[in-house]
TrEMBL record:
<dbReference type="Pfam" id="PF07993">
    <property type="entry name" value="NAD_binding_4"/>
</dbReference>
<keyword id="KW-0444">Lipid biosynthesis</keyword>
<dbReference type="InterPro" id="IPR013120">
    <property type="entry name" value="FAR_NAD-bd"/>
</dbReference>
<keyword id="KW-0560">Oxidoreductase</keyword>
<dbReference type="InterPro" id="IPR036291">
    <property type="entry name" value="NAD(P)-bd_dom_sf"/>
</dbReference>
<comment type="function">
    <text>Catalyzes the reduction of fatty acyl-CoA to fatty alcohols.</text>
</comment>
<comment type="similarity">
    <text>Belongs to the fatty acyl-CoA reductase family.</text>
</comment>
<dbReference type="InterPro" id="IPR026055">
    <property type="entry name" value="FAR"/>
</dbReference>
<dbReference type="GO" id="GO:0080019">
    <property type="term" value="F:alcohol-forming very long-chain fatty acyl-CoA reductase activity"/>
</dbReference>
<feature type="domain" description="Thioester reductase (TE)">
    <location>
        <begin position="22"/>
        <end position="284"/>
    </location>
</feature>
<dbReference type="GO" id="GO:0035336">
    <property type="term" value="P:long-chain fatty-acyl-CoA metabolic process"/>
</dbReference>
<keyword id="KW-0521">NADP</keyword>
<protein>
    <recommendedName>
        <fullName>Fatty acyl-CoA reductase</fullName>
        <ecNumber>1.2.1.84</ecNumber>
    </recommendedName>
</protein>
<dbReference type="GO" id="GO:0010345">
    <property type="term" value="P:suberin biosynthetic process"/>
</dbReference>
<keyword id="KW-0443">Lipid metabolism</keyword>
<dbReference type="GO" id="GO:0102965">
    <property type="term" value="F:alcohol-forming long-chain fatty acyl-CoA reductase activity"/>
</dbReference>
Length: 285
């Protein structure tokens, strides 16, 4: 589907005067989204960026280094000239926190401010390593979705919660694959049933065993990586990443209540086609 100019203008207009919370803003997709919003809709009110950091000042420095200081902001920087930093400071509000914690680890005052202001949440935070440790991947991709949902329910004027998943939650099936949501317990392997709570208990039990056996860090990493792959393949998914992303979708669907939730499933993400910098790509892809 090609979005026409009128549709694109309507999308841009929607962001005017809005307060948006973005998780995963230091990632590839996150910084592309942030740059585009600031470029096509400079009348957006606030962009709260949840960043892993010890405090808000550290979060601000990380955003400067890893996001707004990158080449993709070149066009925006040229447009605003000497006023670029002031423009960023006026619009962008880094928050030190993490999706795996209740209320993202924000203090009461900050939580109240953000939940009162936010119109849109874009959850792009994820561990994307296909073969990540099961506990690490579960914390961000599964429990993170749960915390996002809990936080969204505290936002008094929320208009949309947009969750970034992946097309590969559908596994390695061939042919026409319909976009249908995952229900709790769904799997890709016939005759199996997935219990997310049991998976969490399995992780905790494995961690306790490793600790009791005084396992080295290397042994813990190896065991947890192998556990993730084993559990993923048991239920029909090819790797830990897509398995945990599928569980995250299940939790969102189960816990959403009346929340206006949209789940998007991008496939392969390549370089920028046209603007702001044709062909731009970050890192080795």
């Amino acid at each position: 589907m090609v979005i026409g100019e009128m549709d694109a203008a309507q999308v841009a207009a929607f962001f005017r005067g809005k307060n948006i919370l973005i998780t995963g803003a230091t990632g590839f997709l996150g910084k592309v989204l942030l740059e585009k919003i600031l470029r096509i809709q400079p009348e957006v009110t606030k962009l709260f960026l949840l960043v892993r950091a010890t405090d808000d000042e550290s979060a601000r420095r990380r955003v400067q280094t890893e996001v707004t200081g990158r080449e993709i902001f070149q066009v925006l920087r040229e447009k605003h000239g000497k006023g670029f930093e002031d423009f960023i400071e006026e619009k962008v509000y880094p928050l030190a926190g993490d999706v795996m914690y209740e209320d993202f680890g924000l203090d009461t005052a900050k939580l109240k401010e953000v939940s009162k202001d936010v119109d849109i949440i874009v959850n792009g935070a994820a561990t994307t390593n296909f073969y990540e440790r099961y506990d690490v991947s579960f914390d961000t991709n599964v429990l993170g979705a749960k915390q996002i949902c809990a936080f969204a329910n505290k936002c008094t004027k929320l208009k949309m919660l947009l969750h970034v998943s992946t097309a590969y939650v559908c596994g390695e099936q061939e042919g026409l694959i319909l976009e249908k949501p995952f229900m709790m317990g769904d799997t890709l392997r016939e005759g199996t049933h997935l219990d997310i709570e049991s998976e969490l208990n399995l992780i905790k039990h494995t961690q306790m065993e490793l600790k009791a056996n005084c396992a080295t860090d290397k042994a813990q990493r190896k065991t947890m990586k192998e556990l993730g792959l084993k559990r993923a393949r048991r239920f029909g998914w090819p790797n830990t990443y897509v398995f945990t992303k599928a569980m995250g979708e299940m939790l969102l669907g189960h816990l959403r209540g009346d929340l206006p939730v949209v789940i998007i499933r991008p496939s392969i993400i390549t370089s920028i086609l046209k603007e702001p910098l044709p062909g731009w790509m970050e890192g080795v892809r």
